[in-house]
Amino acid sequence: MFRFHAFSTSSLHGFCPRSARTGRWGRNALWFTCLLTISFLITGCEGIQSALNPAGRDAALIAQLYWWMVGGAVIIWLIVVGLAVYALQINATEHDYNVTRFWVIGGGAVAPTIILTVLLVYGLSMMPTLLEPAPEGSQTITVIGKQWWWKVRYHLPEGQAVELANEIRLPVDEPVQFYLESADVIHSFWIPSLGGKVDMLPGRQTRLTLHPQRTGIYRGVCAEYCGGSHAKMSFEVVVMERDAFDTWLEQQQAPAKSASNELAERGESVFLAHGCGACHTIRGTKANGKIAPDLTHYGSRLRLAASALPQTRDALKEWIAHPKQTKPGVHMPSFALLSEDDLTALAAYLEGLQ
Predict the structure, then answer these.
(1) Hey, what CATH topology would domain 262-352 get?
(2) How many CA atoms does the CB half-sphere of 285 hold within 13 Å?
(3) Angle at alpha carbon of residue 314, lines to 313 and 318, rounded to 5°
(4) Mean pLDDT, 10 residues at a time, over the chain (354 residues)?
(5) Do domains 140-253 and 262-352 have the same CATH topology?
(6) Among 24, 127, 191, 244, whose Cα sits 20 to 30 Å from the Cα of 167?
């Protein structure tokens, strides 16, 4: 018949003197305390991609759940480690059988089970709020994940849609309904500061509601490995006041402005002459490609190549000439054959697409 034996450390005495055991436990406890402190300091860092610095309703709920889970883990750790320290260091003698059984079962099994059950119920209670769709009439956005960029389509009340790429802008203090799709492999849409992540599956549409509560610039990422340049598939998220958002969205609906100077005119000619319009769309021009990012208002975007590069002329020229050096495996062909003057003109034209 199985039974618990009284815990005893007497068998250790012949191999490890008490002073050595005490010193080793003290050093280990000190190191562990330092590591635990550092971990807490690290998790407290802020930034445009921090889930622990929430700027949206859903992210705040997730962060709250995280801190409750940390608290539960700390309680379990204190119970288990506290019992071990007491048995091996504070009172390193043979212990009473009934007392030992009570603490081993109660502290090592019952207490963790109760704490984890409470955390599970608490976490599940958040699901209805996190899964609730946005009210009818809310802004609706479809995002399609592609290797390795994002197609973004804003649906307008009149039934029309305006398309852009690699950047999302949202009105503050309003729920927004996202519909998520994938054109090739599994991606995952995640804006840590605003909410949780949702997978984007080929042949299926998934849904996500976000409710931003603070203006600012945040960073979204693909949270599911999707190929060689997965780590360079990000996007900027700008949360704006409603009036500023309406103005921006109205500007996005307009066709591209004509080239404003001789350099930009040359750049437009280079763009069309070298077949860029076969892949890219620039509304208001002959470029009507559908397989690459829409560039109609490229110049108004904050970053380049799905946030892989800064929005500068030199970075744009490098991207056009050698895209695979930035994103291995990218489908965009290299245009290193263009002269320096042509590259400069092309970059000037694209920068002017505000």
Answers:
(1) Immunoglobulin-like (2.60.40)
(2) 25
(3) 115
(4) 40 43 58 68 69 90 90 85 81 78 81 87 86 91 95 91 95 96 95 94 95 95 94 95 95 89 92 92 92 93 93 94 92 92 94 91
(5) yes
(6) 127
Q: How far apart (Å, rounded) are the C-alpha atoms in residues 67 and 61?
A: 10
**105: number of CA atoms within 13 Å, CB side?**
10
29 to each of 78, 248, 312, how far by Cα in Å? 12, 56, 51
Q: Residue type for 342, please?
A: D
DSSP 258: P
- Amino acid at the residue 240: M
Q: Which amino acid is at 39?
A: S
Q: Has this prediction a pTM greater than 0.85? A: no
Q: Which residue ranges make up each domain of the chain?
A: 49-131, 140-253, 262-352
Preceding amide of 319 cis, omega within 30:
no
Structural contact between residues 73 and 39, judged by C-beta atoms closer than 8 angstroms: no
Specify the amino acid at residue 309. Answer: L
- Give CA–CA dist 36/78, Å, rounded: 12
Cβ 270 vs Cβ 185: under 8 Å: no
Q: Are strands 161-165 and 149-155 parallel, antiparallel or unpaired?
A: antiparallel
C-alpha span between 139 and 276 (Å, rounded):
32
Cα gap 239→223, rounded to integer Å: 21
Q: How many residues does the chain have?
A: 354
